[in-house]
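hey so i finaly got around to running the thing on Transglutaminase-like putative cysteine protease from Pseudorhodoferax soli. pasting the sequence first so u can double check i didnt mess up the copy paste, my clipboard has been acting weird all day
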Amino acid sequence: MLSSIDVKLVYDVAEPTHFCLHLQVADHADQHLREERLQVEPALPLHDYRDPVKGNRFVRFDAPKGQLQVHYRAEVEVNYALPTPGLGEAPVNQIPDEVLHFLSPTRYCESDLLGNAAQQLFCKAPAGLERVQAISDWIHDNIAYTPGSSDATTTAQQIFVQRQGVCRDFAHLGVTFCRALNIPARLVAGYVFFDEPPQDFHAIFEAWLDGRWVLFDPTRMAPVERLVRVGTGRDAKDVAFATLFGKAQLLSKDIAVRESETPPAATPGQPLLRAVA
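ok and heres what it spat out for the 3d tokens, dont ask me to read them lol
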């Protein structure tokens, strides 16, 4: 699957502000970045860096007062391998050191508070892939997808009570239930084509089963094998598309995703990251 990404952001910067943007396609084994370009107007010095463990990529810069425009384009080949049936859960003492912290509760995923609910709902489901699929199915069937029903502070416990939210909330609840059952889980953010626009950033979750990470999307808005991964984290605070230190307002956000089944031959050359006036 070849995906073409086009993201345009416009900000009104009220005072000098430091931006940390998380828009770029992640370095990940399941996808290959063919080309990309990031433009900032007015032209500014950019500093980009990569999380060496998760592959998340960020760009930072100082923006002066006034209007700021950001334009990011990329072409990505996605080659996610769907899981085979029967994947199991690992005993806690066999979970790798680098995965163990994905069992801990976090700000948005209070697995310590929803442990009883998780046990009551899913303890009888077959362990492993079937149990996590049961979690994903339960969220889809019991939580209403309602834009505007939550905000940047809404947690998984609140979603469990109010029974409505958006993709971020669905993913947080999936992560929370998994962790409450001693299944390492984390949030994944990225780009994917939706049959029903408007396009936007999308959040799903993945669980650690039989030595690999397996993706699940409780919203069922798009097949998981089509997601272009941008960020991986403990919860949404690790994968926010923009973190601002100052005062700026997002005026507009336009995201377009186009997909084709058969990628054409790759063009030689390295991905390009630069500021253009």
